[in-house]
Amino acid sequence: MGAKIIGTGSCLPATVVTNDDLAKIMDTSDEWISSRTGIRERHLVKEETTASMSAEAARRAMDNAGITAEEIDLIIVGTLSADHVTPSCACEVQAQIGAKNAVAFDINAACAGFMFALNIANAYLQTNTYRTALILGAETLSKIMDWNDRSTCVLFGDGAGAAIVRAEEGSVGVLAFDQGSDGVKGGVLACEGRSNNNPLVETSKELAYVHMDGQEVYKFAVTAVPYSLQKTIQAAGLTVEDIDYFALHQANIRILQSVAKRLKAAEEKFPISLDHCGNISAASVPILLDEMNRKGMLKPGMKIALSGFGGGLTWASAVIEW
Ligand code: UT7
């Protein structure tokens, strides 16, 4: 039994904010942002929400897969920026698309969220618990950015990506998977939640924003990601040369170049979306995959290596057959 991706979709907010736009409101420049990261613009929400972008990405993925909402029996959203503490984003998506037969829940594995969702769906599908899963990565990161901290706010964007994964007899789908966490180093990329709020304690009313030690996260990424990919490719019984594309989390073009170098893989095999999307945490991998799919880059039988990495710290890789 293979857990195969049979459709993809994505949704970006309508408003595009360029590096030059940011340079008008803070002490930064297109030169600094694009040379350090490869990012040129990002989409930021005005009216859109994490759930509304997710529902739209889901509709496009269902359309691409040629399935109806009633066929979906599992919805998992990887997100750290859901609109509400409860209901979950997945339950909101269920309601908005009319997937009345699905069980729906969110998971938080930061930038590895979509990859963790893929692995969870794969486990359910392999054991015949469910047949058709809708998995998403979706974020409205602009609401948890400190817009006075130029070292983080210029890096991130908003958006959602989705995939339909179906259990298919005789197909391969997910060939191998690796995932891990290192909670001890969680402080290098963090966002506080709500503080205590009961009559026994003094309450801080400070708003919670993302703070990141960029250089520590960078070092983690360029070490953990090639190792995880190498391990997954080997577990799939393949070599780096067998991989047609590496669809990785889009944090920084220099990270992608470094991973390519460490794996001795051609940079052309690392498609990018960060130039026009920025870093959208859990949404990066599924948006990139959808762009590749819609450009006709993905042909049946191709081997794609996927990897997400970030807050937690968390990381996850998979090798799939398209
Ligand atoms: O999705 C989760 C995974 N996240 C990541 O993978 C992020 C990984 N880290 C990175 O991509 C990089 O570390 C950054 C892009 C975040 C930062 O690049 P860097 O080369 O490590 O820069 P830096 O933090 O060392 O800052 C260098 C200089 C500093 O000035 P001084 O102290 O050298 O005078 C900063 O104040 O750049 C300054 N700076 C800026 N200048 C203009 C920081 N942010 C900006 C900015 N515009 N937006």
Written description of the protein model:
With 322 residues, the protein is an alpha/beta fold. It folds into two domains: 2-168, Thiolase/Chalcone synthase (Peroxisomal Thiolase, Chain A, domain 1, 3-Layer(aba) Sandwich); 174-321, Thiolase/Chalcone synthase (Peroxisomal Thiolase, Chain A, domain 1), CATH 3.40.47.10. 32% of the residues lie in helices and 25% in strands. It contains ten helices and 13 strands. The chain has helices spanning 19-23, 30-37, 50-65, 89-97, 113-126, 150-153, 214-235, 253-263, 274-277, 284-294; strands spanning 2-11, 15-18, 41-44, 74-78, 103-107, 132-140, 158-168, 174-181, 189-191, 210-212, 245-248, 303-310, 314-321. The strands form four sheets. The protein has a five-stranded mixed sheet with strand order 1-7-6-4-5, sandwiched between helices. The chain has a four-stranded mixed sheet with strand order 8-13-12-11, sandwiched between helices. A two-stranded antiparallel sheet has the order 2-3. Helix 4 (89-97) links the parallel strand 4 and strand 5. Helix 3 (50-65) crosses helix 4 and helix 7 (214-235) runs parallel beside helix 8. The longest helix has 22 residues, at 214-235. The protein starts with a strand and ends with a strand. Bound molecules: oxa(dethia)-CoA. The site of oxa(dethia)-CoA has 22 residues, from helix 2, helix 6 and helix 7.
